[in-house]
Design goal:
By secondary structure, the chain is mostly helical. It has 5 helices and 2 strands, in the order H-E-H-H-H-H-E. Strands 1-2 form a two-stranded antiparallel sheet.
Length: 87
Amino acid sequence: MKWSEYNESLVRRGEILLGFDVINNWDNELEEMNKDKVGEPFHYPKTFLLLLGYAKTYFHLPYRQTEGIAQEDMLNGKFHLSQITLQ
């Protein structure tokens, strides 16, 4: 058994790729939300926040871990939940 392959399989087991309409409609939803808005514009669409809430609830994630997932994924320009540690 190659340990590198085994390690990779463990990492991949904890990775969940999400390809929802959240990503496809991101710009359109933000544009609609920010239309005629006064003050600081919204940076995240409502559907993305709902999706994070569902992930937090489903995986029993602490708040800070959920926040870290959102920050990391959005900084990298892609949305995926990786290496979630289930409690």
